[in-house]
Amino acid sequence: MRQKEKLVVIGNGMTPGRMLEHLFELDPDAYEVTIFNAEPRVNYDRIMLSPVLSGEKKFEEIVIHGDGWYIERGIMLYKGHRIVEIDRVAKTVTADTGQTAPYDKLVIATGSSPFMIPVPGNDLAGVLTYRDLDDVNAMLLAAQARSRAVVIGGGLLGLEAAVGLKMQGMDVTVVHLMDTLMERQLDAAAGFLLRRELEARDINFVTGANTKAILGDKKVTGVELADGTVIDCSLVVMAVGIRPNTGLAKQAGLTVNRGIVADSGLTTSDPDILALGECVEVDGQCYGLVAPLYEMARIAASRLTGDASPSFAHTDTPTKLKVTGVDLFSLGEIADGDDRDEIVLRDAAAGIYKRLIIENNRIIGAVLYGDTTDGAWFNDLKKKQTDISDMRDTLIFGQAYQAGDAMDPLAAVAALPDDAEICGCNGVCKSKITGKITEQGLTTLDEVRAHTKASSSCGTCTGLVEQLMALSLGDAYNPDAVTPMCSCTSLGHSDVRRLIKAKQLKTIPAVMQTLEWQTSTGCAKCRPALNYYLIADWPDEYADDYQSRFINERVHANIQKDGTYSVVPRMWGGQTSSGQLRAIADVVDKYNIPAVKVTGGQRIDMLGITKEDLPAVWADLGKAGFVSGHAYAKGLRTVKTCVGTDWCRFGTQDSTGLGVRLEKFMWGSWTPAKVKLAVSGCPRNCSEATCKDVGVVCVDSGFEIHFAGAAGLDIKATEVLGLVKSEDQALEHIVALVQMYREQGHYLERIYKWARRVGYDEVRAQILDNDEKRKAYFDRFVFSQKFAQTDPWDERVSGKDKHEFVPMTAIKLEAAE
Amino acid sequence: MNANLPAWVQIGHLSDIPRQGARCISAGGVRIGIFRTADDEIHALEDKCPHRQGPLSQGIIHDGCVTCPLHNWVISLRSGEAQGADEGSVKTYPVRLDGETILLDLGSLR
User: Fold this and answer.
1) For A462-499, how does the pLDDT look when each residue is reduced to its tens digit (9 = 90+)?
2) What is the residue-wise DSSP string for B56-86?
3) pLDDT one-digit tens code per residue, A404-454
4) B23, B55, B110 ranked by CB distance to A803: nearest
């Protein structure tokens, strides 16, 4: 196995992130990768910061690579370490924290930093830029004061910041140097329409205004313009442009111009150092839009894996404005010129303005306002330099009109050539999308995003992608369709749960008949789910249909790959005793059980037991006081604890006691998916309560209740429900929350996914703030436990379901002769 | 005794198996799953999924098929063929119901 080369990446933004994706696709074992990220976080989608600022999205939703992504690829990610020195002789890099790392190949992706106009007061508290998540958080904090904000800069970023702050309730004024907003992309007419649209949302504008000074002694109090007018405000957002971060490269002696100079293979003046993203300059051009940056990422990855064929070349990239509600598209040359003419279409009522800039019968530029569906087509015509003279008089109406027949919404996208680019960010053309849809049988937008990456970055091409799906799937594609429970029904989980209650359906055949199941007896997906929903809704009336349960829940043990089973007795709060350990040891010897393992849930697992031996094993364990640990159940699994005030010098409460009490109260309950709890005796959190379904962190003043954590497929810290004073209150809140989940969760939907679906605030409103609701949930849980809390092992030792554990017969072939 | 003459032998009663459930029998070193469908049809398959030899007798039974408990392959009880995109099949054994008694043809085992 060849020795892996060391690759160090400075910067963890979208471009290096995409490069690593390509690199691991091309050659996963080529490099041992280390990333230094000055920002203390993982790679997220910077384009989607605007919806976070306006409150439409949460940060988790715009993360591109979660922690798991790095771990799976063995990448070392240093968060919050800023590289301060590159030693090109020793080939090492050093961070401000003193951390150093050697490299065989180095990639500089330090991005760009917002440009601060050199006016007095630009360093006052309350003057922010709009570049990363810290800026957004600072702006959200400032916005809580609901006072006035001034945004300096009427370009793409400035307008998005203005709309975001407006939606957060601030009074916003945009100060712009030029007369036309976004003058680099829009002409005066489109600029006017955009301004009118944003003014209608009472954002104020001062154009042709030069900022002279920012006022205030320690905190900003206002902005003074060149003509003397003063706008008082408590927040200033500087969004006048960005500058490539070249300091580090310059200090390391690399050739630097406006950006770090790199050739068409993204290699700098040092053959072992590449540079990509906003910090780089190729043929005198710097780039800020995703499409060219992702192109650099693809090329850099090929170069790093020894393929020198792809090279980076400049292409005009259309700009799409994502100010919610305003569709804007701008491409190529838009200035007037004597050898240029134009075709303009205005529809005042519909607020539509389209302008095509033509030079000797070829499109060289386009501005679309209000209706941008034909952007992709015009871009395609421009790229191919198609002669438009014969379609000149219908050109402006868009592609669907060329044949002159009635406007079929899909005609436009159907007529697009196969290599027409649909998704600019990821360079995905039409045939790639339609091909993958038919090849892999994709039916939902998320599947198309996963398989082709189209519409997975900025999302403005989502409409086009959906049209392509409608084109390829016909009416099989229904965009707002609910994903059905399984192929036996078109109903989703929520509908089925609601109908079970509304129509008082109390058996599986009743559900299937009334809800018109398309199969006679359901399937392995819906039957276990229906069985759970009926138990949860009618605990006293519904008889558990064991044949509808997965084998583990039917036999109360975990099936292994060889058909043997594993048995995990319950150990309350993870506590055990010499007696219990001796009993386990005896059982292991008596039935010569091949494997004994300590589990992640603070219990002991015995593996490799034959099905026939199970009742006998349970009988012996039962004599030692053990009950089933439900390690197989979609139900309460474990309550991990630390020793708390019993022993620990830091303990603030009796965490073990509370853990045991919770487990004794909740064991035996069935839930939509497994539920794991933990109680930590102090904020050092030794029992990892903050990545459990429900956790408790004990503090001096009481019990901090946490929920919606995850530490399996996904890694997610919990949300805080609230602080309660007493153990009784902690128990009541936790039980009520789990009951709410029992009543609303979709089968196999863990608490963290359910909580995100219904909304963390909704859970707090019903459980923390609403006492009657909490009590009602608590009582319903207690009621259902009356029927659920019987030890399944003990039942089976005394003969229940004997048929499960005894083969029907054994016939000897010889005897039959 | 001629090997392929059917030799029906009793292996149990319908009531020994829960509806939409299965029981196993061992016959000459082979483990065979005896399956009872929702409408009381009886089928017999070797208790080894073609995919990874999982015990089909432990699976959930629906629409004349059983879903293997290990990796969710769906196997037809009648033909032993894997359904959907999966490829493979498992040996079936002739069984029949005589009133309440289940009979297996031993001839098929030689």
Assistant:
1) 888 988 998 888 877 776 667 789 889 989 999 999 99
2) GGGSEEETTEEE-TTT--EEETTT-BBPTT-
3) 555 566 777 888 889 888 988 888 999 999 999 999 888 888 788 878 888
4) B23
pLDDT given at position A585: 97
* Mutation target vs B (from A545, A550, A809; most B CBs, 10 A cutoff): A809
Written as six digits, the tokens of A798 are: 């005394």
pTM of the model as a whole = 0.55
Closest CA to A575 of A684, A679, A673: A679
Angle at A723 between CA A721 and CA A729, to 5 degrees: 95
* Mean pLDDT for the stretch of residues A549-556: 94
Q: Which residue has the tokens 């489109």?
A: A190
pLDDT above 90 as % of chain A:
65
The residue among A627, A587, A582 whose CA lies nearest residue A607 is A587
Q: Is the ipTM of this complex over 0.85?
A: yes
Write out the DSSP string of A369-422: ES--TTHHHHHHHHHHT---GGGHHHHTT-GGGTT-S---HHHHHHHS-TT-EE
> How far A754 CA sits from the closest chain B CA (Å)?
25
The region, left, alpha or beta by phi > 0 then psi within -120 to 50, assigned to residue A256 is beta
Residue among B12, B18, B61 whose CB faces A809 most closely: B12
**Tokens (6 digits) for A425:** 């960010």
CB spacing of B58 vs A555 below 8 angstroms: yes
Q: Please say whether the beta carbons of A52 and A44 come within 8 A.
A: no
Mean pLDDT for chain A? 91
How far is CA A79 from its chain centroid? Answer: 19
For residue A44, pLDDT over 60 is answered with yes
pLDDT at A817: 45
Helical (H) or strand (E) element with A802:
helix A802-805
Asked if B25 lies within 8 A of A816 by C-beta distance, the reply is no
Which residue is associated with the tokens 């409150």? A55
- Joined together, the tokens standing for residue A460 give 């403005």
Taken in order A756, A762, A764, A767, the sign of the CA dihedral is negative
Q: A547 and B60 in contact by Cβ < 8 A?
A: yes
From chain A residues 541-570, the ones with a CB under 8 A of any chain B CB are: 546-548, 550-551, 555, 559, 561, 563
DSSP notation for A638-700: EEEE--HHHH-TT--S-HHHHHHHHHHHHTT-B-SS-EEEEEESSTT-TT-GGGSSEEEEEET
pLDDT interval class at B1 (50, 70, 90): very low
Beta strands per DSSP E along A258-380: 260-261, 273-275, 280-282, 285-286, 319-321, 328-332, 340-347, 352-359, 362-369
Q: For B70, name the nearest residue in chain A, comparing CA atoms only.
A: A561
Which residue in B2, B51, B62 has the most chain A C-beta atoms within 10 A of its own C-beta, making it the best mutation to test that interface?
A: B62
State both tokens at A145.
């004061």
Is the separation of the CB atoms in A710 and A716 below 8 Å? yes
Q: Taking Cα atoms as reference points, which of A50, A73, A72 lies closest to residue A62?
A: A50
Closest CB to A808 among B23, B74, B106? B23
B13 vs chain A: nearest CA distance in angstroms? 9
Residues of A in contact with B7 (CB under 8 A): 816
CA pair distance A596, A601, nearest whole angstrom? 14
What is the percentage of chain A residues whose pLDDT exceeds 70? Answer: 97
User: Searching chain B, which residue's CA lies closest to the CA of residue A509?
Assistant: B38
- pLDDT by residue (tens digit) across B50-71? 999 999 999 999 989 999 999 8
Q: How far apart are CA A708 and CA A724, in angstroms?
A: 18
Q: Per CB distance under 8 Å, which residues of B are interface residues toward A? A: 1, 7, 9, 11-12, 16-21, 23-28, 34, 38, 52, 54-55, 58-63, 67, 69-70, 72, 74, 106, 109-110
Question: How long a stretch of residues is chain A?
Answer: 817
